[in-house]
Amino acid sequence: QVQLVESGGGLVQAGDSLRLSCAASGWTNSLYAMGWFRQAPGKERDVVASIERFGGITTYSDSVKGRFIISRDNAKNTVYLQMNSLKPEDTAVYYCAARELGSSRYNYWGQGTQVTVSS
């Protein structure tokens, strides 16, 4: 089992920056990739960014490309999401997720952290 704990959410103004952290514990050797998702009220949960644990290949949704940066510190089993030039439409609950090697879906989820961007 793997446990994920997010931190770093909050209330900011448009144009501000915020960094989210996701600390993984437990059987982390089984993890292949980690990602950030978000869910706004009344909308589906969508992927924001992902990063492979080894190799560091990253992917981003079009809505955040050029503004958000995902990174990892394998020694700390932590993944970060640096969010710059935040917009009101970035307001959502942000979830960290982890995918095991050989899995086609994300197997573990954090509890979520609220990010609110005021205009």
Any idea what the shape is? globular
The helix count comes to 0
SSE arrangement, N to C = EEEEEEEEEEE
- Biggest sheet, open or closed, and with what strands and sense? 7 strands, mixed
End-to-end separation:
40 Å
Would you count the extended β strands for me? Answer: 11
Structural class by helix and strand composition? mainly beta
Our Rg estimate from Cα atoms comes to: 14 Å
Mean pLDDT: 95
Percentage of β-strand residues: over 45%
Q: What are the low-pLDDT stretches, counting only 5+ consecutive residues below 50?
A: none
Your description of this structure?
With 119 residues, this protein is mainly β. Helix content is 0%, strand content 56%. It has no helices and 11 strands. It has strands at 2-7, 10-13, 18-26, 31-39, 46-52, 58-60, 68-73, 78-83, 92-100, 108-109, 113-118. The strands form 2 sheets. Strands 2, 4, 5, 6, 9, 10 and 11 form a 7-stranded mixed beta sheet that branches. The radius of gyration is 14 Å and the shape is globular. The model has no long low-confidence stretch (mean pLDDT 95).
